[in-house]
What we know:
Chain A is mainly alpha-helical.
Amino acid sequence: MINSFSILIKIKNFFIEIGELTYFAHRFFKEALKRPFEFKELLRQCYNVGNRSLVLVSVTGFIIGLVFTLQSRPTLMEFGAESWIPSMVSISIVREIGPVIIALICAGRVSSGIGAELGSMRVTEQIDAMEVSGTNPFKYLVVTRIMATTLMLPLLIIYGDVIALYGSALIENLKGEVSFQLYFNKVFNALEYTDIIPATIKTFFFGFAIGLVGTFKGYNCKNGTVGVGEASNSAVVYTSMLLFIIDFIAVFVSDIFFEI
Amino acid sequence: MKKEPIIKIENLKKSFGKNEVLNGFSMELYKGEHLVIMGKSGSGKSVMIKCLVGLMQPDSGVIEIMGKDIAYLNQIDLDDLRTEIGFLFQGSALYDSMTVRENLEFPLRKKPEKFKLKDRLVQEALENVGLLEAIDLMPVELSGGMKRRVALARALILQPKIIIYDEPTTGLDPITAKEIIELMRNIQQKYGTSALIITHDVDCARVISNRMILLIDGIDYAKGTFKELEASKDYKIKEFFK
Lengths: 260, 242
């Protein structure tokens, strides 16, 4: 009885949180269109998001390409299909693996960072200080961060995809003696707009989700320093979950419009 | 002629669930006055000032600042009114990601005519608190007392008519606390600002107050000068001056 009651409360709290997140997103769109625009802070946040994640995305991207090629090579060789490696790897990376893995990495790095930063600003009354000085903290802190992640994530993912393809090309060059030029010729022959466009569009939504959840958790942080840890942790968990849901919807919609 | 209060609170009530924190609190702050509000921890002092500046919504009651009922102000008017109030937070609340200079420039963004003079105003504000050499430091590089002074400089930069001090001496050593109290007195003499001081530091109240209110059981339990309240026979009041 107690167990089923606590489960019901958890389900109720989950739906309340979804409602609050939706209201938070609605407020973002409302505030984003209002003057004054915080361009300077937006640029600073774009630099922060890009700079914070660049090394991580480079390393992750390179290893994805490297490992993916190494793992798929023996199986394809069994069928004498190793010449298909560049097209298979590039389509997989550009359509799915690159965007999802790099977005997950950024969720861990950026979303938790935003959650912790805004959370500590909340518990140390810095957000209250902004508000009493007559500045709208939502516009200054939240809108700029969500816009920065929405704009920067597609760039990071495109960059990560390119690095992953270089990793794959390196393995092909070392193991299969395929030149870089030949490898990339095969990649560009294999890739079509229907692979690139839907995959790029969904990265904007990934970026939006990372910024939205991170700011939501940090901005509404409670319970002092313990709350900061919780905000940072739950920002990663919620964002990761949301990324998979967005990915599912994106693939479903792409299937309708592009017949992938 | 009757003196008009610059802040007037009437019958303010605020509760969190079943916990009634404020249960009909009333007060007036007059121009140029230093009003100290004392109360035990958890007595609702911070809740009261958060309601006062619109950071929290009261359940009922009237709050008027410079003749304006804040319940009827839209966000733009409330933000404009807030620029007339300086707020010194208990933990200083300096923006961690900004230098001292940027912290002080931040409130000036609301007033373009003052933002043009930002260099001079920042320098002047830091000179007032004796910390000009810290202008390019980050908050993490400052001691507790220095942070409190920078926060005070930030609260003063728009030359507000009212300053609210939330526990200005809490967490400071006695010497630094004295320096902060001295600064508060100098500011009143120099600018003639009205001040609302929330504290449980009796020494601070003795030195700084023109008038005091004791916040007990969610109401303005006793009002008067420091000497009047100190001489009271009421055991609840006597507890504060032990």
